[in-house]
Structure formats: structure tokens, C-alpha cells
Write a structure and sequence with these properties.
Blueprint lengths: L2 H48 L3 H12 L1 H12 L17 H25 L11 H14 L1 H42 L2 H7 L12 H25 L3 H21 L2 H6 L1 H37 L1
């Protein structure tokens, strides 16, 4: 067989393989999103019925956090992909940098958010906690002490978004498309807690809840970049779970250093903007660039082989 014919056959086989991968990726995405949508509707119904019952509302909230995990499991089972990629293994060896970034990036982002909130709201960088710096250190330590518990809960999200959706979107629409569309879907998924609980931005602002949803999507698009970066660097979803756990456990703790509860409540929208959205963008841009470099290096390595 001539070299030209062999090349043509090789390209045809590669095209068939790529088409099959995209078809399976789309199927997995649809199963995942259908599962998440079902839980979003269920949560909205639950909050509408039980909004005065704090216990049931909390149970509903925790169950909702695990809906991406359920979507991931269903998608991987139905498409028969399973978990052969080993994404659930910690893979500590050789991935110390990914784990270090999973701790440092959200810690830096949370502290930056607290500083920006205090400065823009005119509160100054004066510790507001009773007990001063001593209490501040204790508060931060307590936040980190609950990290593993929070990381376990946020694993319900990461085992869906970063362990399935982003990877499948990359197959279909590339790296940039995955970051943008994946982050948008992740942000919209938060609608029930934004609307019923006023998470991150409160409820008392013009354009509620649409402005809050838009701001949330901006934050999740950019915050999704470093989360996916540590996932891609390690080949494991565990660093992303750890990263997300730091975000959910320490962000609020840092804010209490410089803002009183009264000030934070009255300025919930701006605290959300300065303390969450803006720092997410600042952390997301270099992480996004690193993702693109990582992707380019992987393609070059694959081409070289």
C-alpha cells in the first residue's frame, strides 16, 4: 500500500474516532444536565413548600449540592465509561504543585476579597472581631479546621462539573468553550440558592434575581478556570474538591475580619461583587492562561509522539 493511501486511511480512522468521542461526550453531557435540571426543579419546589422550615431547607440544600455527582455517575454508567480514568484517585505523588495551588489560590482569593470589600466599603483594614488579632487568628484556624468536612460536601459538585462536564465540553467545543459554557452552566445551576436564600448577593438589590445570576455566572466562569487547572494538572478531581472546600470554608471567615455582620448584611450585593466576583476574575485570568498553555503543551507532546 502506498504511503499516500496509508495516510488517507489513518486520517479516516482518526475522524471516525473523533466523531465517536464527540457523540459519546454529547450523550454524557445531556444525561448530566438532565439530572442537574431535575434536582434544580425539585429544590425550587422544596424551598417554595418548606421555606419556613430551616431543617428541611438545609437538608434540601445539601442534597442539591450532590446532584452533579449523581449526574456524573449516571452519565458514566449509561455511556459505559465508568471511572477507568482513575479520576477519583488522589494521585499525590508528583502532583504536589497542584495540591499546593489548590490551597494557595483560594486562600489568596478569599483574603483579597476581604481586603477589597473593606476598602471599597470604606471600613478600612481594621480587625472588627472582638479580641483583635488573637481572635482573627483563631477564626482563620477554625475555618481551615472545617475544610475536610466542607471539601467532602463540595465533592458533590466537583465530581460533576470538573470530573465530567468540563472534560466533555472540551471534546466538543475546545478549551475556551469549555471554560465559558461550563462556568455559565455552573453559575445558572445556583439559581435556587440565589433566589430563595440570597446566597452571595442577598435579595435586596435592583434587578433581583437576574443581576445576581449574571454576577454568579461571571464568578463561576473565572473561578472554574483554576479549579479545572488543578484537576488537569493532577489528573485527579481531589485537588479541585480541596480547592472548592477552601473557597466555601474560608471566604466568609476572611470577610468577618474587616466587616461587621451589620455592614455585610446591608451591603450584601457589593460584598458579593468585591469579595467574590472581582477576586474570582483576578484569580481566573492567569489560571485560564495556564490552562491554555497546558493544553498546547499536551497537544505538542502528543504530536511529537
Amino acid at each position: 500500500m502506498k504511503a499516500k493511501d496509508q495516510t488517507a486511511l489513518s486520517l479516516a480512522a482518526s475522524d471516525r474516532k473523533s466523531h465517536a468521542a464527540k457523540k459519546n461526550a454529547l450523550r454524557a453531557i445531556l444525561i448530566f444536565l438532565a439530572t442537574c435540571l431535575a434536582f434544580v426543579l425539585l429544590q425550587c419546589y422544596s424551598y417554595a413548600c418548606w421555606q419556613d422550615n430551616e431543617v428541611l431547607s438545609y437538608v434540601t440544600y445539601v442534597a442539591f449540592l450532590f446532584s452533579p455527582l449523581m449526574g456524573c455517575v449516571l452519565a458514566r454508567l449509561i455511556t459505559r465509561e465508568g471511572f477507568r480514568d482513575g479520576i477519583l484517585w488522589p494521585r499525590f505523588l508528583g502532583n504536589g504543585k497542584a495540591y499546593l495551588l489548590a490551597l494557595l489560590i483560594p486562600t489568596f482569593t478569599g483574603f483579597l476579597g476581604a481586603i477589597l470589600s473593606a476598602l471599597f466599603l470604606g471600613e478600612g483594614l481594621i480587625i472588627k472581631l472582638e479580641g483583635g488579632s488573637r481572635m482573627a487568628v483563631l477564626t482563620i484556624l477554625l475555618c481551615f479546621a472545617q475544610l475536610y468536612y466542607v471539601a467532602f460536601i463540595t465533592a458533590g459538585e466537583e465530581l460533576g462539573w470538573r470530573a465530567l462536564l468540563y472534560d466533555k465540553l472540551e471534546i466538543l467545543i475546545g478549551m475556551n468553550g469549555a471554560v465559558i459554557l461550563g462556568g455559565f452552566l455552573w453559575g445558572v445551576w445556583h439559581f435556587p440558592v440565589l433566589y430563595y436564600l440570597g446566597v452571595n448577593f442577598g435579595k435586596d438589590y435592583p434587578g433581583f434575581p437576574f443581576l445576581g445570576i449574571l454576577l454568579m455566572c461571571v464568578a463561576t466562569v473565572f473561578l472554574g478556570a483554576p479549579l479545572w487547572l488543578v484537576r488537569k494538572m493532577s489528573g485527579s478531581v481531589i485537588p479541585a474538591c480541596l480547592f472548592h472546600g477552601v473557597v466555601d470554608s474560608v471566604f466568609g471567615g476572611f470577610l468577618t475580619l474587616f466587616l461587621t455582620q451589620d455592614v455585610a448584611s446591608k451591603n450584601a450585593l457589593w460584598v458579593g461583587v468585591y469579595g467574590f466576583v472581582l477576586p474570582s476574575v483576578i484569580a481566573g485570568i492567569p489560571s485560564w492562561i495556564s490552562l491554555l498553555r497546558l493544553s498546547k503543551a499536551a497537544k505538542t507532546k502528543g504530536y511529537t509522539k
